[in-house]
Design goal:
- The protein folds into two domains: 101 residues, Ubiquitin-like (UB roll), CATH 3.10.20.310; 123 residues, Cell division protein FtsQ/DivIB (Rossmann fold, 3-Layer(aba) Sandwich), CATH 3.40.50.
- By secondary structure, it is of the alpha/beta class.
- α5 packs parallel to α6.
Length: 255
């Protein structure tokens, strides 16, 4: 036999003997017996996430052993849990998996039965234990971050005249309305929202606080003013409205 061929054959046999155990380990053939995952470390600050649920989600993904564990599969299983915002997964030789979990932080109720997270994601979760002080928002899911930003801007501006904004709704056309804690509605529309709010706030500064508290609905979509519906008051002397502020407009509202 040709010596060169013999050497090549010997090298191929040697490489096969070396590679076979590695391939077997990577495919999980030997991993369960020889390199099992013995420790799972879960890290994170939890208010709503249950650590036991995290461990239950991870367990089926690590049965193949250390070398065959797919970290992306573990990550996906943990992130599928309701209150999990994100997960980071790492392996540590010889038998440990670390899972760091970031919990969703709810910043608002969304619609009837969902929540909005601090990352702008709408998610489903058990609402028990969620603070009822969170604002109530609604609108197209894909525009949740925009609704939140508009809510914050309107809340800050209207607070300057003593109006406590507690909710914001965007309809399918993108028009906004905000709602005060006392039930008053402020229709902002979808265009020139900042300038409309500014005009309204400047006008309301001319009214006494007691008069502002009588607002039931204000439509800010008019070109040069706004329309206000006032709550009824007990028959008693009241201060007249400041001159120059009208509660009705003869023009049609804009969008």
């Amino acid at each position: 036999m040709n010596p060169r061929i013999t050497r090549i054959a010997a090298w191929m046999i040697a490489l096969t003997l070396i590679a076979a155990p590695i391939i077997a380990a990577l495919n999980g053939w030997l991993a369960e017996d020889r390199w099992p995952i013995r420790r799972l470390v879960v890290q994170g600050r939890f208010a709503q996430v249950n650590e036991a649920d995290v461990r239950s989600a991870v367990a089926p993904q690590v049965r193949a052993g250390f070398f065959a564990v797919e970290l992306d599969a573990v990550k996906a299983a943990v992130e599928a849990l309701p209150w999990v915002e994100s997960a980071e997964v790492r392996k540590h030789w010889p038998d440990r998996i670390d899972v760091r979990v970031e919990e969703r932080l709810p910043i608002a109720f969304w619609g009837e039965d969902r929540l909005l997270s601090h990352r702008g994601d709408v998610f489903v979760a058990n609402l028990a234990g969620v603070s009822q002080d969170l604002p109530h928002l609604d609108g197209p899911d894909l525009r949740a971050s925009e609704v939140w930003a508009q809510h914050r801007a309107a809340r800050e501006r209207l607070a300057d005249i003593g109006i406590d904004v507690r909710g914001t709704r965007m309809n399918q056309r993108g028009a906004l309305s905000v709602f005060a804690a006392d039930g008053a509605e402020f229709v902002l529309g979808r265009d020139q929202i900042r300038s409309r709010l500014e005009r309204f706030v400047l006008a309301m500064h001319r009214l006494p606080v007691i008069e502002r508290s009588r607002i039931a609905r204000a439509d800010l979509r008019f070109a040069n003013g706004f329309a206000v519906v006032w709550r009824a008051v007990d028959p008693a002397p009241t201060a007249p409205a400041a001159p120059g502020i009208e509660s009705r407009s003869l023009h049609e509202p804009q969008v």
